[in-house]
Amino acid sequence: MTDKITVAGVAVDTRHFIGAERVASAETFTDTSPIDGSVLGEIARGGRAEAEAAVGAAKAAFPAWAATSRAERARILHAIADGVEKRIEELAIVETHDNGALLRSHRRGVMPRVAHNFRFFADWLLTLDHDDFETRGHTNHVSWDPAGPSVLITPWNAPLMLATWKVAPALAAGNTVVLKPAEWSPLTASLLADIAAEAGLPAGVLNVVQGLGAEIGDALTSHPDVRRISFTGSVPTAQRIAESAAARLTPLSLELGGKSPLLVFADADLDLAVDLAVEQYDNAGQVCLAATRILVEESIADEFTRRFVDKASRLKQGDPRDEATDLGPNIHPRQLEKIDGFVRRAIGQGARAVIGGTPDTGLGGLFYRPTLLTDVAQDSEIVQEEVFGPVLTLQTFATEEEAVRLANDTRFGLAATLATGDHERAERVTARLVAGTVWVNCFFVRDLQAPFGGSRHSGVGREGGTWSFDFYCDLKNTVTAP
Ligand code: NAD
Questions:
Q1: 470 lines ligand 1 (CB under 6 A)
Q2: Could you tell me the pTM of the whole model?
Q3: I want to staple 262 with a disulfide (CB 3.0 to 4.6 A). Which of 291, 296, 319, 369 is the partner?
Q4: Using an 8 Å Cβ cutoff, are 421 and 269 in contact?
Q5: What is the ipTM of this complex?
Q6: What percent of the chain lies above the pLDDT cut of 70?
Q7: From atom 20 of ligand 1, which residue's Cα is the shortest distance away?
Q8: Catalytic residues (predicted)?
Q9: Confidence class of residue 363 from pLDDT cuts 50, 70 and 90?
């Protein structure tokens, strides 16, 4: 194993970052690029020993970091954001080679947002307070005490964005961190470790370990010294992690999958509704929040479908490094097989592919054609299960009542999107939807101070603004006599 690989001219350390040291493992796993299947490198494959070392480093660093003033913690978080901003181009190019998402969106959207994650939570920390109040002359004072070493486990679909959405508030709160990125996209987390060290984050405050979920992931989440586990990923993994956490009563935050609806009412601006629907193919459909179930009022279904097909057929699928590309590849051969399996089974059960329905083998990578399926039954797998690829279903409804019933008829509850020109209808429908986020005539507009998370199988807890600090802190109320 070599210690460093070069990805499009950017050097990336393939070892763990534990304490202030780079640490190798005897074993490795192979990281490949979804763009063309090329091998990017061999990455350290940690296990129980590396988990022990990383949690040990986080535990040793905790008392000093927890005692560091809020102002100093905020200063260092801003310095990390500066470091991210200086390296936006490098981070963007490495992330695109590693997970196949569009370079232009990494450059202009994702990596600036990574920096913003640090700035936002640094600034929020300085305003975080709770007014003292009195009980029979006694003062109640609420303090936000750091909870301790925190394990953060993240998926591959938006690797550095989702990792820093957890790392930034955990560090701001005064916790120390062990971050384990997904094995299909391990690289930018390693660059983040370099950036944090250069920004002056003390040794052991942020540790990054690499490896497989069932190995080092499991060792981390079952470790008795871990005081918080924050996980973003799939429901089956969350269930395994919750079992480990239950044995030690480790507090958990879970951000999981979805099968979100887009409800299009006849009174909607149809061009806007079509734009919203086509947007669901972003990131080749690998977005937890994607509204993959399009529910359209019967009276406009034909016109909506015609305009949708017209617009979706003009999407350009190809190399994610090309500025003109709209849809890149899917992450891994296993993911492509999984997507294709869902579509084949749906078609086998009578679904009709209005567009797409097969992989695109002509493009040389892991591409699946943007797909729209109609004639799907409400209780079918394709309507009920998350595909995590560019596959949408279209169903119709006759009444508002039916629209709400179909929208809520799922075990998930992450998000919902409405297209309607009637504000009263929007309010009525929104009040009845089970979802952590509802967008009305828009999609993906997010403010970090808003609560974010899912209901039902889409998650446990909320992150964002004060909710993140609520999770990463042990709140303490001190009652003082007059
Ligand atoms: P996954 O559950 O397979 O893996 C996620 C992470 O968990 C990886 O780092 C993996 O190594 C680790 N892991 C696997 N087994 C583990 C174990 N036994 N113990 C500890 N860690 C383990 O999910 P994925 O395929 O990487 O991600 C896709 C899923 O993530 C989708 O369901 C998607 O909807 C969801 N997601 C949710 C959000 C959200 O904010 N709600 C955001 C992005 C993705």
A1: no
A2: 0.97
A3: 291
A4: yes
A5: 0.97
A6: 100
A7: 217
A8: 255
A9: confident
